Amino acid sequence: MGFIELYDTTLRDGAQTWGITFSLDDKLRIAQKLDEVGIDYIEGGYPGSNPKDRRFFELAQKLNLKHSKIVAFGSTCRSDLTPRKDPQVQSLLQTGASAVTIVGKSWDLHVTNIISVSLERNLEMIGETIDFLRPHFSKVIFDAEHFFDGFKRNRDYAIKTLEAAGSADLLCLCDTNGGTLPSETAEIIRYTQRQIKLPLGIHNHNDSETAVACSLIAAEVGIKQIQGTINGIGERCGNTNLISIIPALALKMKILEYDPAKLKLLRHLSEFVDEMANRTPYKAQPYVGTAAFAHKGGLHSSAVLKIPSAYEHIDPALVGSFRHLPISEQAGRAALVQKAAEFGIDLAPDDPRVGEVLKIVKDLEAQGARYDIADGSFQLLLKRMLGLHKRFFTLHGFSVTSSKRKGDTKTYSDAVIRIVVRDKMEFSAAEGNGPVNALDNALRQALTTFYPNVGEVRLTDFKVRVLEGTSGTGATVSVLIESTDGEDVWWTVGFNENVIQASWNALVDSIDYKLQKDLVGKN
């Protein structure tokens, strides 16, 4: 898809991330998404290492991929075996993959001290393995492991390992320890290009926080393939983040011809892989994070509405992102008017109510509210102040008790609430695995009879933050709750010196938001 090949190793290198395990189904679904976005090569795994990866290659042949080619990953043959007799090398032939990547040692330290073979035997292992696989695959790639560290210690031998892989289609230079800086990367690549005429690729790890920078400078000096992962996941500190690489190459450097429609899928791809990895998306991730185009400061938000490029390096829509103007104590009139418009509320900047709302927001944030995150609670606050809020229920009180008896392994919580719904006093009691869960159950129980749609709400995240640590157990806490009804996701906030009261406030806002949302949908 242009002058540079995109090679994804999320399913192999990314799966080595501490805390991440992809199921077989996860890997197949991710591969399908990578194809939809237009990744050239998808490294499916290491069939010689585990049954799950072998099964992946078997099922991957049934995927209806439109663009991507599946790559099998392996290593050079064992020192005491020929490639034909090495089971790990033979397993590559059984994958049905159209391309193969072979990793081999290019740092003499690893050759003599880690795999304990002679320098000459290592060169033979590289050449023999590549030559053996050459007739069986449409593309053979050699990953020169630890190439940059090997070059710094013994450049002549590092170059010889590339020469040994001379029958490969592409030689990928790997910064396996992730310690090489951009300036060193460019210098080493330029030297290597003078010695080696085959196309070169780059595979960076992020241990120095420079993986993306090193890959971009590699592209600038003529590298033909960039290897990386979605969201930069990978062993230790991760790998080059393809989510950042793709728009940089396509929109800024203009050396990657990329379908604009596929570029708009980047944010979705990023969130999808995080979902498969069971990770919370990183809000500040460049290009696609929720905060990537968020403007909290009043001057910033006002300026960006006049001239977006004043505070945005690209149009967020190009990568499937969007501008976000969080409301906070630093917000200005422009941000408030823009946020109101997102809620379907028409406000003019000179409306006197704008100033009143801003004052209340700043006062409440000083007490512990976090409206820059909790859009749901802010929308409710705005509607109440503008007379657009419908009251569905009124709280008259609640009681929560928790107990743990001798011998018990868990704490039991019970909640009793008293609310008025449609002029009728309702009492509700429920138990839960904690006081907040008990309150949640009691509130739902009381409301579901009147408003069945409350049953659609699920709480998907719950965060407690101490706002003033010096006050110890008497500190004000802020409770953030993420909720969904299967269609939308919203955040609500509660704050109080009492964590139960703060939690209750956030819970009530969560349910109230759903009721207000569905009311608007009916109108």
Structural class: alpha/beta
Gyration radius over CA:
28 Å
CATH class of the largest domain: Alpha Beta
Instruction: Supply the number of structural domains.
Output: 2
Number of helices: 18
Main sheet makeup: 8 strands, parallel, barrel
Low-confidence stretches: none
Strand-helix topology:
Blueprint: E1 5-8, H1 24-37, E2 41-45, H2 51-60, E3 69-75, H3 87-93, E4 99-105, H4 108-113, H5 119-133, E5 139-145, H6 147-153, H7 155-164, E6 170-175, H8 182-195, E7 200-204, H9 211-220, E8 225-228, H10 242-252, H11 260-263, H12 266-276, H13 298-306, H14 333-342, H15 352-367, H16 375-385, E9 394-403, E10 412-421, E11 424-432, H17 435-448, E12 458-466, E13 477-484, E14 489-496, H18 499-522
Parallel strand pairs: 1-2, 1-8, 2-3, 3-4, 4-5, 5-6, 6-7, 7-8
Antiparallel strand pairs: 9-10, 10-11, 12-13, 13-14
Tags for this model:
alpha/beta, single chain, 523 residues, eight-stranded parallel beta barrel, 14 strands, 19% strand, TIM Barrel, three-stranded antiparallel β-sheet, 18 helices, 39% helix, Double Stranded RNA Binding Domain
